[in-house]
Amino acid sequence: MSSVxxxxxxxxxxxxxxxxxxxxxxECGPGTIERGGSCVAADETVxxxxxxxxxxxxxxxxxxxxxxxxxxxxxxxxxxxPATNVTTCIGSGGGGCGAALAxxxxxxxxxxxxxxxxxxxxxxxxxxxxxxxxxxDPMAPTATxxxxxxxxxxxxxxxxxxxxxxxARLAVGDNYIDDCGRYRVSDITLPASSPFIALGIDDxxxxxxxxxxxxxxxxxxxxKAADVATKDVEAFIAPRSTTDQWASNGGPPINNGIYVMMFxxxxxxxxxxxxxxxxxxxxxxxxxxxxxxxxxTDVTRQRxxxxxxxxxxxxxALVTNAMLSDGYSGTGGIPSECRWSGHAAATLPFxxxxxxxxxxxxxxxxxxxx
Length: 370
Known about the structure:
- The protein is mainly beta.
- It folds into two domains: 71-82 and 96-238, no CATH class; 241-370, Immunoglobulin-like.
- The protein is 10% helix and 31% strand.
- The protein contains three helices and 23 strands.
- The protein has helices at residues 3-24, 156-161, 240-248, and strands at residues 32-35, 38-41, 55-58, 61-64, 76-81, 86-91, 110-119, 149-155, 174-177, 182-189, 196-203, 217-223, 228-230, 235-237, 258-263, 278-281, 291-294, 304-305, 316-319, 328-331, 338-340, 351-357, 359-361.
- An eight-stranded mixed sheet has the order 8-11-12-22-15-19-17-18.
- A hairpin with a 4-residue loop joins β9 and β10.
- The chain is globular, with a radius of gyration of 31 Å.
- The protein starts with a helix and ends in a 9-residue tail after the last strand.
């Protein structure tokens, strides 16, 4: 081969290499991106599998479906729904009892608990018909109604062991209650050893605390959880007139304390009560000598039936002499794939402690259909 032919052949190979290199480094114009050596539209959707919940694939990027929410701190509170990761701005200027009450995320390492206060006897919200959603002033409590009571947070186990222990009360960032009976205990310092936080309700005016005021001292408990806003925790008032009715119907006096077990037919958030449930201790044995059940047809919690052995229409039972070491649950009223949640509880003098129990899976291999 002549030297001319060699030079031409080398030149052609160099040109081909250059063309190949340029094909491997495609420069795409505005509005397009390179994919597989070609320029395609930037909004071409290829696969949703690479994008997480509430995001959409745009070109080669997963973008949020919703714009970031920024609430006006002067007029609203941020309320995050953990199920959807969507933040809603809820007005902080009253709005009446029908308006939503924000339950914003707590400070790091803290917990916020929010909910509605109910009348234990009737099951109705503890709110006047003319409530406006105005925050109560603890320095100027009313004689009756939601603004006559207060809500405090406690280490549940420490309080149950010794209600007079000053260290049982937990520090909080803010303690809110309004004239609709809605409450919010913000930025609770978590108990060091107890797995539960108790909310204690009594009169603001300590000279009327206990049976003398709007309510007997009442309590509810919920699991502690750092960095969580726990919503819709039901709390209750139980006036002296209610506990006096129980005692006059053969029920326990308030003097030694009462544990109220409320069985709900469905998993949260249903409030449907479950009839036909008998109280049992943690070892599975019934407690007939310490149980009291209501008249089967009563939806309110007023009249007790001395011979009843299970819950009636209101799904409730009263228990006396409860001890933390026993643990309490229920049997009956639900399918075999389900069992009732179990809880520790203790009866304390002049305190009505309320616990809501719900169906859960009977075992790791069974699914409760409720």
